[in-house]
Each structure stands twice: as C-alpha cells, then as structure tokens.
Design goal:
Elements (H helix, E strand, L loop, with lengths): L12 H10 L11 E2 L4 E5 L5 E7 L2 E6 L5 E5 L5 E5 L10 E4 L2 E5 L5 E6 L5 E6 L7 E6 L3 E6 L4 E6 L10 E4 L1 E2 L9 E6 L6 E5 L4 E5 L5 E4 L10 E7 L3 E6 L4 E7 L6 E8 L6 E7 L2 E6 L13 E7 L3
Parallel strand pairs: 1-23, 15-19
Antiparallel strand pairs: 2-26, 3-4, 4-5, 5-6, 7-8, 8-9, 9-10, 11-12, 12-13, 13-14, 16-17, 17-18, 18-19, 20-21, 21-22, 22-23, 24-25, 25-26
Length: about 325
C-alpha cells in the first residue's frame, strides 16, 4: 500500500466535477417521476458540498467534495458533527461502510481512504492511480473495496485482509460490454450480499452492467430499450430491486432485475420536492436517505445550504 503525501497539490475538485458533468448526456425524460411521499430533510453544515452517503441504522455519514471532510449525523434527531476534519489535498466522493470501516473515493486525487466510523481515525490512504482520473464511488464486500473510475476504463481493488488489514491496491481493467465514451462513465457501484457480482451504472449512456469482480468482465443488463442517464449512486435492495439515482433530473428510478441478472425492467421513476440534484442513496430504516449535491443550482456553493432527503420507500 502506497501512501500519497496529503499536502500534495490537488486540482480544483469542484472545477473537475463541473467540467466532467458538463459533458454528460442531457436527456429529456418524457414521463415525470411519481412523487415520493412522507419526505423530510436533515441539515448538513452550510457550504459542505456533499456527494456521498452511507448509513448504519439511524446514523449517516456524508462526505465533502472539496475538503475530504466526513460528517456524521443522526437521521432521526438531525444532530451531528464533523467526524473527519477537512484536509488539504483530499476529496470525498462516494462512501461505503462495512464492519465499522468507512471507505471513501477520492475523486481527482486518485486516492481512496479508510476511516474508523466510530472515531474518525485514519486507517489507510490508498494511492489507486497517478493518471488523470476521477475515482467516483466505492463498495466494500467481505473480500475487498472496489472503486470506480469515471475517466479510465478500470476498477481499483483494495483487498480486505482477515483481521482487518488491507492489501496493496490493484487495478482491474473493465472489459466485455462496457465501452467508455466522452464524459462521466462508470459511476455508482454496488454488490450482491455474497460479493460475487458487482453492479455498475454508466452515467453518460444510462446503461447498467454486472461485473465479475475476479475478471473485470462487464455484462450489460438489458433494460428493454429503457435507460437511466445521469445515473449516479445505486443500491441493490431486497434481492432484485436496483435503485438508481438520476442526479440532474431529480429522479430515483426502480429497476427490477431478472433472477439471471441479464435483464431488468424499469418499474417506475420517483421524484420528491426535497430533491436538488441527489447524488447517492443509502438505506434509512424502511426508507432511503439521499444526499443532495445541488450542482449548479446555487449561487455560492461555499455558503449554500445542503441537506439529506429522507423518504419513505416508494411503492
């Protein structure tokens, strides 16, 4: 495991995000989303500029894009505080929580991070790549943490050792049906409970894939002519339900997967009055928590209000 100097210069994270999202395919959806009922919001610090979210019971964790800070709060009371302070040269994009370890994707830094979810202690800094990159999201299984790269056609794998240590990061090329094009490519990632199959959404094409975590071979999930453009965070839920957050169109889309995982049906798309460019999703009791990044919808992101939307599970 190589550790990057945390004081190394960092490309403007927000500028990188804005530039890459500007290249995304803009698609007008003909059918508006149904309204998600019984929603409420949980505030984040002003100017926090969040993107990723993870939950453990009623506790949630949200990351700050430009600072790498992690906020820890209570979805019921709304109380919370900064768990991991801002650090120069760091960024926090996607999050994944497993067995008390919070894994964080570092965007254009090319790094990944691991923190103790209770204390905020740094457990690892992983240099995933030195190429121009955007390490966008992460999912941790019992065997490894898998990070997506929205610029380069590959995953990064950090083995999780027995006893809680980490192995050296590995690069896993993505092959098979997925083809990277201009703009944001592989974004959100999730896994089956046994970790034997990964799921990816490709933001600019709106395509979904399964990925073999051993080989990197990606297989398209046939949506019967449908697509989920601007797909960001994803969540596999209750067996064969795959929820996809379509960020800039403020939609949460339910895809029901065939048991073979070779195909899926877009069941419905939902929206909510609290959505303002939701980016990622996590479980919240019987519902979901979605963090709102508010990309390009506020005049000054350094002072703007930010929040988590808590919604009942749409029917």
């Amino acid at each position: 495991m190589r550790v990057r100097d945390s004081a190394a210069p960092l490309v403007s994270v927000r500028a990188m995000v804005a530039a890459l999202f500007a290249m995304m395919l803009v698609v007008a959806l003909a059918v508006p989303g149904a309204s998600a009922q019984d929603s409420r919001t949980v505030p984040l610090p002003d100017g926090f500029q969040p993107e990723g979210i993870a939950t453990r019971g009623r506790t949630f964790f949200a990351g700050s894009i430009p600072t790498g800070a992690i906020y820890k709060g209570d979805l019921k009371t709304g109380e919370g505080d900064v768990l991991v302070p801002p650090m120069e040269g760091r960024a926090a994009i996607g999050l994944s929580l497993r067995r008390g370890v919070l894994f964080v994707a570092g965007g254009p830094t090319g790094d990944g991070y691991a923190y103790d979810a209770d204390t905020g202690e740094e457990l690892g800094v992983f240099e995933l790549t030195t190429d121009e990159t955007f390490v966008n999201d992460v999912v941790a299984t019992s065997r490894a943490a898998y990070f997506t790269d929205s610029v380069n056609q590959r995953l990064y794998v950090v083995p999780i050792e027995t006893g809680g240590g980490f192995g050296a990061p590995e690069t896993l090329p993505l092959t098979g049906d997925i083809q990277y094009t201009e703009g944001f490519n592989a974004n959100g990632i999730d896994a089956t409970p046994n970790g034997k199959t990964l799921f990816l959404v490709q933001s600019n094409t709106g395509m979904l894939f399964t990925v073999d975590p051993s080989t990197g071979v990606a297989t398209e999930i046939d949506l019967g002519g449908e697509a989920v453009p601007m797909g960001d965070g994803i969540l596999l839920d209750r067996g064969l339900n795959l929820w996809v957050v379509q960020n800039r169109v403020n939609l949460l889309t339910l895809v029901h997967l065939d048991p073979s995982l070779a195909s899926g049906t877009v069941v419905n798309r939902f929206t909510d009055e609290t959505f303002d460019v939701p980016t990622t999703i996590a479980r919240a009791g019987g519902g979901f928590a979605l963090v709102n990044a508010r990309f390009n919808t506020v005049e000054d992101p350094t002072t703007a209000e930010y929040w988590v939307s808590v919604i009942r599970r749409p029917e």
